[in-house]
Design brief:
It contains two helices and four strands, in the order ααββββ. By secondary structure, the chain is an alpha+beta fold. A hairpin with a 6-residue loop joins strand 3 and strand 4 (79-85).
Length: 98
């Protein structure tokens, strides 16, 4: 998802630096400022484990929360992919989740 690309990148850097799945306090705080076409500031969050959640405030996904969960590589030190869950309408999924 384009709107969360920066936070996903931050989580990936945090994970590579730590050698395990993590998000620093700076990354967690930065997520609160994230805004997108269909969600306002403070609608996005990231856990210390790197899981990103976005609650949609408008559009076809209004009221739903999308969760982006990182999957580590075989060595468990880098993010290999992200899995999107939590949305009820597959045809309205952001392109990065398809």
């Amino acid at each position: 998802m384009q709107a969360t690309a920066g936070i996903q990148g931050d989580v990936a850097v945090d994970t590579a630096n730590a050698g395990s799945l993590t998000a620093t306090t700076d990354t967690i705080a930065a997520a609160q400022d994230l805004e997108g076409k269909y969600f306002k500031a403070k609608s996005a969050s990231v856990t210390s484990g790197g899981i990103i959640s976005v609650k949609f405030d408008s559009g076809a996904l209004n009221g739903q929360t999308m969760t982006l969960t990182p999957t580590l590589n075989a060595a468990k030190n880098q993010i290999a992919s992200w899995k999107c869950t939590g949305l009820s309408k597959n045809n309205t999924l952001p392109s990065g989740c398809r």
